[in-house]
Amino acid sequence: MGNQMNDFEWPRELQTTIDGLAQGGDGVGRYAGRPVFVAAALPGEQVRVRLTERRNGWARGVLLEPPSNPAAERVTPPCPVYQRCGGCDWQHQTIESQRQAKQTILAEQLRFVAQTDQAEVAVTAAAEPWHYRSVARVHIDGRQVGFYAAGGRQIVEFEQCLIIDPRLNTAIERLKPLLPLVGLREISLRLSTTDGTIHGHLLGQGQSGWRSWARRWLAADKTIAGVSAETREGWMALAGAEYLYEQLGNVRLRITPTSFFQANVERARAVLQQIEQFLPLNNTTRLLDGFCGVGTFLLPLAHKIGHGWGIEEHPAAIRDAQASAKANQLTNVTLKTGKVEAILPQLKQQFDLAIVDPPRRGVEPVALNALIAAEPTMIAYVSCHPGTLARDIKILQAGGYSIQHAQPYDFFPQTSHVESLVLLSKV
Ligand SMILES: C[S@@+](CC[C@H](N)C(=O)[O-])C[C@H]1O[C@@H](n2cnc3c(N)ncnc32)[C@H](O)[C@@H]1O
């Protein structure tokens, strides 16, 4: 328990009424004026809570029993390992209320952190609530295969995960009889939604026997197109195809096993389409894609612009983007390896339009200031964390930008993760 020296004495258990949902997914109640974050609790519910973390200004806890007055949005989670597996924290509420909550969370972050009332948050753009993930990262111990338990490293086995693509469930079932494999701790399986092939990436203490095991896996399951392993230097191919490919717009993107690529590819396509509609691209446009990954947004837009710049810190992802640019005959892109905060200030390049899609920690202030200095007329900010998004928007607003459109995209139904697209334009 994360107790701290307190001047406020929290009880072990308490009763409260939930009045909202916090970024991060918990219900929020109050005790002696201080917020109490309660897992799996919904607004309006009166709950009895056992505290698991007590701080001076706030506490966190879990339900002692089902709420006495369950919210109308409460549903029975369909997954048999719900709350044991650390995967889906919001299966206890309807998909409609999840989406409404994501909208509220984004609106509140923009209001309270970015301090803007000007932003109207559009209705959450939604897609398939189940079986949407094209990546599954399973942990392995001997013959045990599963996901980590909530808040721990214990493996929770499952028969059919309800949020991964059914083809990944089948591949995991076919994999089990081939185990154990000495030194194997984890496999990341990625499905190409374009051609249905799967790539398996092995993590652990690699052994000489892994290569022949990989060949056996390929022979046992025809959907597995390639197997690779993590190494100290990066990665190595063990058997079959080295790369996976996904079609986005009119571009076929190459994806190395260690490169970031979106886990919900259908939503990534929807965001790309929306960016394309928002940004007034033409054949003289100078477009920046900060945090470009394998070129997910930049390359499909390249045929519509004058010149594009992509910046990405992971060398393998930039090599993928370069290979895809070449294979798709896109000669009007400059791809730079390195941190956006280091490269952008040095580029001294003006842009007409910009896309940024940073990790959860958001964009460094030095990079935001360099972006402002580059004077794009519009910025499309794709975010996986509403808090850091709102913090960064505050800086962009001070730099002369205002929000034109803000919308959550439901990339991860059944979870509290909020992905959003915000369009800003120069005032
Ligand atoms: C959320 S992903 C987006 C990638 C790409 N836009 C896509 O949709 O596939 C963020 C990317 O930023 C990269 N990254 C993280 N921190 C970075 C930094 N400081 N500078 C440049 N790239 C960074 C990661 O390697 C990752 O590829």
UniProtKB/TrEMBL annotation:
InterPro entries: MeTrfase_TrmA_AS, NA-bd_OB-fold, SAM-dependent_MTases_sf, TRAM_dom, U5_MeTrfase_fam
SUPFAM superfamilies: Nucleic acid-binding proteins (SSF50249), S-adenosyl-L-methionine-dependent methyltransferases (SSF53335)
Organism per entry: Herpetosiphon geysericola
UniProt keyword S-adenosyl-L-methionine, yes or no: yes
GO MF entries: rRNA (uridine-C5-)-methyltransferase activity
Coiled coil: none
Keywords: Methyltransferase, S-adenosyl-L-methionine, Transferase
Pfam families attached to this UniProt entry: TRAM, tRNA_U5-meth_tr
Family: Belongs to the class I-like SAM-binding methyltransferase superfamily. RNA M5U methyltransferase family.
NCBIfam families noted in UniProt: rumA
One of the GO biological process terms: rRNA base methylation
Entry binding sites for S-adenosyl-L-methionine: 262, 291, 312, 357
Domain TRAM: 1-65
Domain of life: Bacteria
PANTHER family in alphabetical order: RNA M5U METHYLTRANSFERASE (PTHR11061), TRNA (URACIL(54)-C(5))-METHYLTRANSFERASE (PTHR11061:SF30)
Protein name: TRAM domain-containing protein
